[in-house]
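Review session, final week

We close the course with one last complete record, chosen because it touches almost every idea we covered. It is N-acyl-D-amino acid deacylase, a protein from Streptomyces showdoensis with 526 residues. Go through it on your own first, then we will talk.
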Amino acid sequence: MDLVFRDAEVVDGSGAPSYRADVALADGRIAAIVKEGAAAGCRRPTARRVVDAEGLVLSPGFIDMHAHSDLALLRDPDHSAKAAQGVTLEVLGQDGLSYAPVDDRTLAEVRRAITGWNGDGSDIDFDWRTVGEYLDRLDRQGIAVNAAYLVPQGTVRMYAVGWEDRPATEAELDRMRRLVAEGLEQGAVGMSSGLTYTPGMYAPDAELTELCRVVAEYDGYYCPHHRSYGAGALEAYEEMVRLTRDAGCALHLAHATMNFGVNEGRAPELLALLDEALAGGSDISLDTYPYTPGCTTLVAVLPSWAHEGGPEALLARLRDDGTAERIRHHLEEIGSDGCHGVPVEWDTIEISGVTDPALSASVGRRVPDWPAARELLLADRLGTTILQHVGHEENVRAIMRHRVHTGGSDGILQGDKPHPRAYGTFPEYLGRYVREERVLSLEECVAHLTSRPAARLRLPDRGLVREGYRADLTLFDPATVAAGSTYASPRTLPVGIPHVLIDGRFVIEDGKRTDVLAGRSIRRTP
């Protein structure tokens, strides 16, 4: 054996009660599990190295089902933001916008569109264009944690149709089908959408259904950020359930919550909708983060018509006083589709990051009104990120208890003052919602963060502590594990997670990041 963890409290990811055991690793896999009190003659394993795990929980590594580390994994090999949380696998390509598949034009446009999520990419060598080439780049460079990828439907539409708000032609739809199929053949695990982000939101249901049929052919899943988390949220959820049922496609609902004042206390209605669909045979799962504020870009709250033609066309509209007044009218009086159909409440919007360092004094401040927002959008060339304080704690708690719930950070690592979920989601679940609040039992919570997402990703040898499974493991102290990140200090690392391993190699050892780059791309298997 290479390594033995002695006297660990094993929470194996299945939801079953924990047990005390020695866990031995060899060649990157779990080679032996010897429970305390094993039958006579069952010898305790020995190895070249033995680690005393007394007082520690040993669990599968956590799977972040909603990550925005598409460039961060390449930019920052350390990637302690996730590794220190016990995360051993992230799912990228979220919300319908990422960097593959692209041509040169689309790459330039998507880099502009999501500068607020990932930076402008000026420090990245974009030496890929296809999904397979992007995954190859992750493997070639070496990454801190494993990564899976979703084909981003908004990028696909940008590539095939552009920024026009209209149905795709049959030829354009055929091209989108081919792009999605090629991405899945090259290893993507499914397809994402951002249906409050342009240009993905311009797609009608019939178009999305056709693309989901392609995803279903490859046994992947559809992960939509659906059309509203505010006004009409339940109808938007039902739309996704109906659409994927018609397409015969598995559904995973991204950051599935109920926000804004119109949805306070309405999580039970969402869960009843999902239970009915599950009882009818639909294949559904969801992810959430354990916080009430959301995080996005300031430009995202604008009405979709203002985005038509792309970022430069939007900037021109913002410069025009008459068009800017029309935008304000939609935002403040009608309810912009970019702001989930709810009239914007400026005092709920906090600036979390800017692209232009000269504007850094704005970070941490609330947006006072539309003139200030317009000025900032123009000065920062649409790159501003925000926190939206529009969530409800009772909704967060109700949804995280559901049997198809998984954990996702939705972690945007860009900006001077990012959302603390980027650095704290998984220890926040374990520390606050398990130990302090007892919303979930430890065994149940670990299952939400490990085996359930592994099952959605159809990973045959991850997500459980089982002999023969890959040794992607997290060891944490259940008495002290906690998120260190706060809204004031969002990049503070967690405490109480001394060891994290990928393929049996220490990524975090004795609470410190090693120089190991054990991650690789996790590709869809036929």
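Two points worth writing down before the exam:
The longest strand covers residues 3-10.
The chain has a mean pLDDT of 97.
Good luck, everyone.
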